[in-house]
């Protein structure tokens, strides 16, 4: 798991967030495909300006912002296009996320490491900093079928929050976190309906020999092996 000692000085608050969100009229494969797409995640996550693959946790955010401005990445329901840019186990991703916590509106420069990606489970860890506030976190999710033809996403995040945001207290931070999670999964549900993401078919032998699209989407390619 990725661990960093870089954080803002000042008050510290350790927090845990968890819950289950149900997505209707969909399958585990469709939800896994959606949650594997950095472009869809950035689009659905409130306040996220961009989320891009990087080589390590040493990120030049000025250069990354320029790269984000120049990219040509759109939401798509094409499984092959998503497979090419999907999150990969052991890789790093970085972005900028603005969060409103009471009267404070920090924009966090955030770096995330994909610790595990093996359908139906994914976990990540990372940190974000914004002047007088910062956080370090580890997060995981697991997908389950529901009895009424949907998918339940069980998720949990442990976070250490530092600085000015930590001083807001749990009564302020918890409702903000719950609101962000509800908006995020609501947007994922809407995007799934709009794009009608196709459930991946069983790979042909030729596809399997080449590390085909289904294996890549399910996190089973050799590059994703731990």
From TrEMBL:
Residues covered by region (Disordered): 117-142, 196-226
Domain of life: Archaea
Pfam family, one: COXG
Ranges of compositional bias, category Low complexity: 122-141
Entries under PANTHER family matching the protein: BLL0334 PROTEIN
Name listed for the protein in its UniProt record: Carbon monoxide dehydrogenase subunit G
UniProt source species: Halopenitus persicus
Taxonomic placement: Archaea, Methanobacteriati, Methanobacteriota, Stenosarchaea group, Halobacteria
């Amino acid at each position: 798991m990725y661990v960093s000692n870089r954080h803002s000085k000042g008050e510290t608050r350790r927090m845990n967030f968890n819950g289950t969100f149900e997505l209707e009229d969909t399958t585990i494969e469709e939800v896994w495909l959606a949650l594997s797409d950095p472009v869809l995640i950035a689009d659905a996550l409130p306040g996220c300006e961009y989320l891009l693959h990087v080589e390590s946790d040493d990120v030049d955010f000025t250069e990354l912002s320029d790269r984000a401005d120049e990219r040509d990445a759109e939401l798509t329901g094409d499984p092959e296009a998503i497979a090419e840019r999907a999150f990969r186990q052991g890789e790093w991703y970085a972005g900028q996320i603005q969060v409103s916590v009471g009267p404070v509106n920090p924009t966090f420069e955030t770096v995330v490491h994909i610790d595990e990606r093996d359908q139906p489970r994914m976990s990540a860890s990372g940190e974000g900093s914004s002047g007088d506030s910062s956080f370090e976190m580890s997060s995981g999710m697991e997908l389950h079928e529901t009895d009424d033809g949907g998918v339940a996403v069980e998720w949990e995040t442990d976070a250490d929050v530092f600085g000015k945001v930590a001083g807001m207290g749990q009564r302020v931070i918890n409702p903000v976190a719950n609101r962000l999670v509800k908006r995020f999964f609501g947007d994922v549900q809407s995007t799934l309906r709009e794009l009608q993401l196709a459930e991946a078919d069983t790979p042909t032998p030729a596809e399997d020999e080449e590390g085909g699209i289904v294996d890549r989407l399910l996190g089973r390619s050799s590059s994703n092996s731990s």
